[in-house]
Amino acid sequence: MARSGPGPDSGARVPLSIWDLPEQGGRGPRPKHSRAAIAAAAVSLADAEGIDAVTMRRVAAALGMGTMSLYNYVPTKEHLVQLMIDEVSSEYRYPDPAPPDHRVALLDLARQGWGITQRHPWLPRIMQRPPVIGPSALRYIDYFLGLLSGSGLDAGAKMELLALVNGFAISYGGVQAALAEERARTGVSEQEQAAAQVAGLVTAAVSGRYPNLAAALAGPPPPDRDADEIFDRCVLRLIDAALSPPHGNGGP
Amino acid sequence: MARSGPGPDSGARVPLSIWDLPEQGGRGPRPKHSRAAIAAAAVSLADAEGIDAVTMRRVAAALGMGTMSLYNYVPTKEHLVQLMIDEVSSEYRYPDPAPPDHRVALLDLARQGWGITQRHPWLPRIMQRPPVIGPSALRYIDYFLGLLSGSGLDAGAKMELLALVNGFAISYGGVQAALAEERARTGVSEQEQAAAQVAGLVTAAVSGRYPNLAAALAGPPPPDRDADEIFDRCVLRLIDAALSPPHGNGGP
DNA sequence: GATTCACTACGTACGCTGTACGGTGTTCTC
DNA sequence: GAGAACACCGTACAGCGTACGTAGTGAATC
Fold first, then answer.
1. What's the predicted TM-score (pTM) here?
2. I want to staple B142 with a disulfide (CB 3.0 to 4.6 A). Which of A140, A165, A189, A210 is the partner?
3. DSSP string of B107-171, one letter each residue
4. Residue B160 to residue A233, Cβ atoms within 8 A
């Protein structure tokens, strides 16, 4: 039997992307809320109490609506997550005109990405799913491609670099976020945490089963580097590697 | 009041890492199962039915035990996940002696990592959490460091390269896995999926709001590349960038 | 050998989740 | 005005992680 109720699925296919769904149809009462408002509410809830606090009930309550009313705006929670990702993606700022130096401009973009993951530590955890590209992500892609317009790279190579830089920023941000979360939960300081990590490696090394690890720990301690330094250096390496011709020929 | 029951937490702190917990204490009946068996059961369940099928109830049932008995082996589900990660990490093979060429050896390792994410597509989703290093991960780190022993890099730089290569392999594998999952769910072919992605970009491009995207799509189509090719090239770039001296000096 | 008690095993129950369903009231198009 | 489309939402359900309590087992201690 055909249904007509408000349920999310109604027997019909629910589109993969939230942006394949019109924000409002013509008929019926005007919705009281906008997608933007819903996304903002979910994001600030995640910022304040962590991603696990983002439940349909809590988001609906934050917006002053009943739980099931949220399903009028979003067919499943997955689509709400898409809105959240695009919401924080809108935080990128695109200087116009762009800095003349490719490397500087790209590094700035990567740093912004890392900044976003620091403001929204739950983001990396959320990003590991089918990539649905929203308007803000498109804006980002467009700007990124623009920065590389004079580089001589073909479109595929540009997209590769984008994936490379983003993949690194996400994964780097994810580790940092996880460490910060652990710090917040357990109350240990950053130094104590680092010491504990090293101590763990050391106990492993003294077992004798990991000779190379032991050798690395026995060698001269590398100069102190902070997270920003490491981040910048890695990203610049990625950029330089993409912009310069390959070294030798490929693998075997 | 002090408890003595079997509950997971007993009011006492539960250690962050499962390997900080002895596998079995001296007293009482011998446990019927091993951590390895539990990890294997959870992994094959995830392989067969996806990560969402890995619930305490299902894993316990697969092992022929009551749900709560699982908590004798693992204080929380989080610790079960740690076991799963280390279980699949044990799939790495470390040729002895290692190939003489750094680049080849490192590329092989990265390819193995990607292979693992293809056999266990749920892995990338799981990895985004506080990094808890198990014995198999230690083995991997040790081997990786060994490959770089003659490189002249200091310990910190070696770890950076490890993070860079792993971060890329995970993030690349994650995207591929998500796409494959979507394919399995919706039944579309790989070509259709790619076409749909491009079509989405094209509709965005014709809106006029994304000029650089339009330009990239209008340009000559890049030569077809398959996923392996892209993967190898990206990883080699990472390796070469790390092994060669930096290009210019850093950012601003 | 008897006692102790750490340990495994597990049934029951609680609070929470995402969301299916059906009903009611509002506002649009005809 | 009629009827359809839509917003709103209370109730309900299956499934989740896991707290708690109890029963039984067997190595360590006496």
1. 0.88
2. A210
3. HHHHHHHHHHHHHSTTHHHHHSS-----HHHHHHHHHHHHHTTTS---HHHHHHHHHHHHHHHHH
4. yes
